Amino acid sequence: MITLQDLRKVYPTRSGEVVALDGISLEIPQGQIHGIVGQSGAGKSTLIRCLTALERPTTGSVIVDGAEVSALSEAMLRQARRRIGMVFQHVNLFEARTAAANIAYPLAIAGVPRAQRATRVQELLDLVGLGDRGDAYPAQLSGGQKQRVGIARALATEPAVLLCDEPTSALDSTTTRQILRLIRDVRDRLGITVVIITHETAVVREVCDAATLLADGRIVESGPLADVVTRPGSPLSQALVPVPDVGVGDQRALVQVSAGGAQTQIAHAMHAIATEPDAHVVAGAIETLGGVRVGRWHLDVADGDRVAVLGRLRAAGLAIEDDAA
Ligand SMILES: Nc1ncnc2c1ncn2[C@@H]1O[C@H](COP(=O)(O)OP(=O)(O)OP(=O)(O)O)[C@@H](O)[C@H]1O
Ligand SMILES: [Mg+2]
């Protein structure tokens, strides 16, 4: 549904070239909710701008919904953009127009006759849970409700792909969860492909099926969460299920171990740790990610028995991630 092939974007600046994307190849299947995470400057916004063809790649190709957007003429591009919905952190609604009129706007641009517009707008309002608020002006809506209008507006032209750039960063945690649930619900009903750019790992944990970690314009790691969380030493997994920091001070030999799979596997791993006399837990975290349970623990392991202890834990199915030995 979305294919990126060896995508490179270089910005010429006065002080030299900035390589914002450096050989990105990525396949996002239809109906997937895919999170793009990475630190500030990693290239997330550049990537989303290339997907909408607001930015032309320096080299490489971008194929969205069967069309190579990197090669389309301006006229073809306007057509193709209708198949791409955008949701932003700041919704930017027309303040002087009602919610319904805001949602109708892209329909008018697309040439949908007035009579059909009203029906479609009501369907969209219903879809985002604002069925009875179509007459409200933006100033009369909460932040979460405004984002719902933004999502309805993005879906108006029946896009195949929904691109979300920090869709919940301006919202509190309860509203964030509601909006993410709405995005998932929309995907389930419409089968739309969703890309979410976010600096919040909680967003990925909550809603994404798969994720890509970017750093310095390159992919560090990518994959379905269910696979990622069981990869030993996975940077994405560590970012998504961080173990609370422990002071190194008097800890002799900290070891990071992890387990992933069904709840019984986590229980089995915890039993192995608990019954290991020469290791004890100093910190730990357990989460559900992409339908898979994942546990991660920092253990303090007695120095002399290190090899034997780690061997026993490994035999019990635990991945040893951070073996200082
Ligand atoms: N128009 C531009 N001209 C020159 N350099 C740019 C331009 N846009 C982005 N860059 C550079 O490209 C790199 C990637 O920027 P980008 O905005 O994609 O990062 P980001 O991951 O979205 O960061 P943030 O989380 O801060 O939004 C950065 O080094 C940035 O300075
Ligand atoms: Mg950005």
Automatic annotation (TrEMBL):
<protein>
    <submittedName>
        <fullName>Methionine import ATP-binding protein MetN</fullName>
        <ecNumber>3.6.3.-</ecNumber>
    </submittedName>
</protein>
<dbReference type="GO" id="GO:0006865">
    <property type="term" value="P:amino acid transport"/>
</dbReference>
<keyword id="KW-0067">ATP-binding</keyword>
<dbReference type="Pfam" id="PF00005">
    <property type="entry name" value="ABC_tran"/>
</dbReference>
<keyword id="KW-0813">Transport</keyword>
<dbReference type="InterPro" id="IPR050086">
    <property type="entry name" value="MetN_ABC_transporter-like"/>
</dbReference>
<keyword id="KW-1278">Translocase</keyword>
<dbReference type="GO" id="GO:0005524">
    <property type="term" value="F:ATP binding"/>
</dbReference>
<keyword id="KW-0472">Membrane</keyword>
<dbReference type="InterPro" id="IPR027417">
    <property type="entry name" value="P-loop_NTPase"/>
</dbReference>
<comment type="subunit">
    <text>Homodimer. Forms a membrane-associated complex with FtsX.</text>
</comment>
<keyword id="KW-1003">Cell membrane</keyword>
<dbReference type="InterPro" id="IPR017871">
    <property type="entry name" value="ABC_transporter-like_CS"/>
</dbReference>
<keyword id="KW-0378">Hydrolase</keyword>
<keyword id="KW-0547">Nucleotide-binding</keyword>
<comment type="similarity">
    <text>Belongs to the ABC transporter superfamily.</text>
</comment>
<dbReference type="GO" id="GO:0016887">
    <property type="term" value="F:ATP hydrolysis activity"/>
</dbReference>
<dbReference type="InterPro" id="IPR003439">
    <property type="entry name" value="ABC_transporter-like_ATP-bd"/>
</dbReference>
<feature type="domain" description="ABC transporter">
    <location>
        <begin position="2"/>
        <end position="241"/>
    </location>
</feature>
<comment type="function">
    <text>Part of the ABC transporter FtsEX involved in cellular division. Has ATPase activity.</text>
</comment>
<dbReference type="InterPro" id="IPR041701">
    <property type="entry name" value="MetN_ABC"/>
</dbReference>
<dbReference type="GO" id="GO:0005886">
    <property type="term" value="C:plasma membrane"/>
</dbReference>
<keyword id="KW-0029">Amino-acid transport</keyword>
<dbReference type="InterPro" id="IPR003593">
    <property type="entry name" value="AAA+_ATPase"/>
</dbReference>
